[in-house]
Amino acid sequence: QENKLYRILVSDSMSNEGLAPLLESNTTECVLKNVKEADDLDSYDALLVRSGTTVTEEVMDQMPQLKIIARAGVGVDNIDIDAATKRGIVVINAPDGNTISTAEHTFAMMISLARKIPQANASIKGGEWNRKAFQGTELRGKTLGIIGFGRIGSELSKRARGFEMSLIVFDPFLTKERAEELGVQTGDLDEVLSQADIITVHTPLTKDTKGMLGMENIKKTKKGVFLINCARGGIVDEEALKHYLENGHVGGAALDVYEEEPANENELLAFDNVVATPHIAASTKEAQLNVASQVSEEVLQFLQGMPALNS
Ligand code: MLT
């Protein structure tokens, strides 16, 4: 029986160990090269990406052999799903491989905000010894508002309980039964906005969530609120956030994701009370191994004729 050799383009950097199923299979050939640099796009059967590659209709037009696009991560907002569907290309992701890493990073960002750790770190390393400037707030007894209560939101809630925080959750897809089972208090968006001391978003970026924390909604929050976005740039409207940081309504923000990435020119970075990281919530050894191996195994199975699970 003829053994077809499938060509796989790995466009963003990924865990090599995670890619092992594809690297070691004698039915696949992996090429590690960015889509933008590849001049042989027409020869690939599968494309693996993280968030660094935008898979547009134009890219797909150059890849007539393409059968499957795999996102080694959760958010598929960098892939034109409609264009893929039109061409019969399957899109898969790794929905749970980086849940814990992202929940932990969000928690780290929350503590960083509350205790001004990045600012204090920069200060002492800059030769200062300024104990007054870095008085913080405790998390205990504060209300954490979680918008989007999927895998990451619910892992975060477990950690918040350990810190004796109160929780209020908004998620239109969360049933009452499931909320009771998880023991969380739910509210509508306005209730979360008006009751929470700290608000964190854990939704995908869709037309419904884009700009969800914008001029109108941020106005409904408590004065001094902390806002956290470790989900997707654009869920928190950056112009609005800037406005409310400038007038002091928002007490601080922690951002891992931005409307435009890389975000080196982002004006929000200039605020003292903005804690920022460069889209690294999922960047742990564990998460990167998980997501790369999850999509590698699925791509291999799909090319061998099995159905795609996480499509
Ligand atoms: C994701 O959607 O999984 C994260 O943003 C992580 C990544 O971009 O790799």
Automatic annotation (TrEMBL):
GO biological process: what's one of them?
Answer: L-serine biosynthetic process
Q: What GO molecular function annotations does the UniProt record carry, in alphabetical order? A: NAD binding; phosphoglycerate dehydrogenase activity
Functional pathway: Amino-acid biosynthesis; L-serine biosynthesis; L-serine from 3-phospho-D-glycerate: step 1/3
Q: Give the EC number.
A: 1.1.1.95
Q: Print the keywords alphabetically.
A: Amino-acid biosynthesis, NAD, Oxidoreductase, Serine biosynthesis
Which reaction equations make up its catalytic activity?
(2R)-3-phosphoglycerate + NAD(+) = 3-phosphooxypyruvate + NADH + H(+); (R)-2-hydroxyglutarate + NAD(+) = 2-oxoglutarate + NADH + H(+)
UniProt KW Amino-acid biosynthesis keyword: yes
Report if keyword DNA repair is assigned.
no
Leading EC class: oxidoreductase
State the protein's purpose: Catalyzes the reversible oxidation of 3-phospho-D-glycerate to 3-phosphonooxypyruvate, the first step of the phosphorylated L-serine biosynthesis pathway. Also catalyzes the reversible oxidation of 2-hydroxyglutarate to 2-oxoglutarate.
The family this protein is said to belong to: Belongs to the D-isomer specific 2-hydroxyacid dehydrogenase family.
Q: What is this protein called?
A: D-3-phosphoglycerate dehydrogenase
Species of provenance: Alteribacillus iranensis
Give the lineage: Bacteria, Bacillati, Bacillota, Bacilli, Bacillales
